[in-house]
Write a structure and sequence with these properties.
The chain is α+β, with helices and mostly antiparallel strands. Helix content is about 45%, strand content about 20%. β9 and β10 form a beta hairpin.
Length: about 375
């Protein structure tokens, strides 16, 4: 078969003839682009980038951009090989940028994101470690500076690739009005994140309760805060919740937390003996602070019991308050049993006026069969 058959035009696109050989070249290059894009998204490439101590999210962004860039590059090369000229340096229709400038813009934006990420890591792990500042404040400073580097870097990249921000001012204003309503939640969460980093009502490691979520703060990000509950469940809470909702911070300022444990004993119990037993339980628990000293209050005289309250302080168990209360309750039950002190059931006293009641019991002596009042 002669090569003239391969060089024979098959169809025309934009005034350019496409041959059978051009179709084959297009298919081969386009398939190569798909394969390379797939490889760049593989775990092998992700592990390679992870060796440079790059954040997981940043690695995902880089591999995605590289795979898309490879796909675009091979697609354009395939179009050129098919016989349809598409110049790399010529401006694209309706766009003042050429393909080379677009690839350069993508590469520079990736570099800006990488520099921002490395800036935060360098400041937090090296530069500010020996500054004497609180660790949470060091994280806030590193976070804010990295965001500034990111914004400034994006502006510089856009200016140097021929995209003048002044020309975009009118367009940005028009788009801002239309999109503002849809992005107002994102903007408010972002601003709330900056307020949290600046005022520091919460810091990494604090135990907080907000909007029905209780747990330990793991990360404070630009839009949301990551909280790890005691059930090992990660909750993502929008930053606005920490600004417009009541927030309980168990460790804010002072890590010491007071716990109140209620207990009821039977009437007739030796209250001094009960008091000593409860204080002994507190002293035997390693998580209870000696200062402020544990104390016992007599709260109320209930219908079935005398109600007391054991008050202790702890600075370690604020992360596991339920476990701490449970341990104290188990110890209290054991200690009261050893001392012969009764924890009563709810009970009622029945009084009959001018009549006598006779109750017949089963042979076991436990369940009443019937009650007969005189004269009935």
């Amino acid at each position: 078969m002669s090569f003239s058959l391969f060089e024979k035009p098959l169809f025309q696109v934009g005034g350019h003839y496409v041959t059978f050989l051009g179709v084959i070249a297009f298919v081969i290059l386009f398939a190569a682009g798909l394969v390379i894009a797939r490889i760049l998204q593989s775990n092998v490439v992700r592990r390679f980038f992870s060796r440079f101590k790059i954040d997981t999210n940043f690695v995902a962004i880089v591999t995605t951009i590289l795979s898309l860039a490879a796909l675009v590059f091979f697609t354009i090369s395939a179009i050129n090989a098919a016989g349809i000229p598409l110049a790399w340096n010529a401006p694209l229709p309706a766009v003042s940028l050429s393909l080379v400038q677009i690839f350069l813009l993508i590469g520079l934006l990736v570099a800006v994101f990488w520099i921002s990420s490395r800036t935060k890591r360098f400041l937090f792990n090296r530069f500010l470690v020996n500054s004497g500042l609180d660790r949470a404040l060091q994280y806030a400073i590193a976070q804010i500076i990295s965001k500034v580097v990111l914004v400034v870097g994006i502006f510089i990249v856009l200016e140097n690739t021929g995209i003048h921000l002044g020309a975009l001012a009118v367009f940005a204003g028009a788009v801002g009005v239309g999109v503002g309503f849809g992005l107002q939640n994102i903007a408010s969460n972002f601003i709330s994140g900056l307020v949290i980093l600046a005022e520091r009502p919460i810091t990494i490691g604090d135990r907080v309760e907000v909007a029905g979520v209780a747990g330990q703060v793991q990360q404070i990000r630009a839009r949301s805060t990551v909280i790890l509950t005691n059930d090992n469940i990660t909750m993502i809470v929008p930053n606005t919740k920490f600004i417009d909702s009541p927030v309980t911070n168990w460790t804010y300022g002072d890590p010491r937390v007071r716990f109140r444990v209620p207990i009821g004993v039977a009437y007739g119990s030796d209250l001094e003996k009960v008091r000593n037993a409860l204080l002994e339980v507190a002293r035997e628990n390693s998580h209870v602070l000696p200062q402020p000293a544990p104390t016992v209050f007599l709260e109320t005289f209930g219908e079935s019991s005398i109600n007391l309250e054991l008050v202790v302080w702890s600075k370690e168990m604020s992360y596991r308050p339920r476990r701490f209360r449970s341990d104290l309750n188990f110890a209290i039950v054991q200690k009261l049993r050893e001392a012969g002190i009764e924890i009563p059931y709810p009970q009622r006293d029945l009084h009959f006026r001018d009549r006598l009641a006779r109750v017949e019991m089963t042979p076991s002596g436990k369940t009443p069969e019937r009650a007969v009042a005189d004269g009935a």
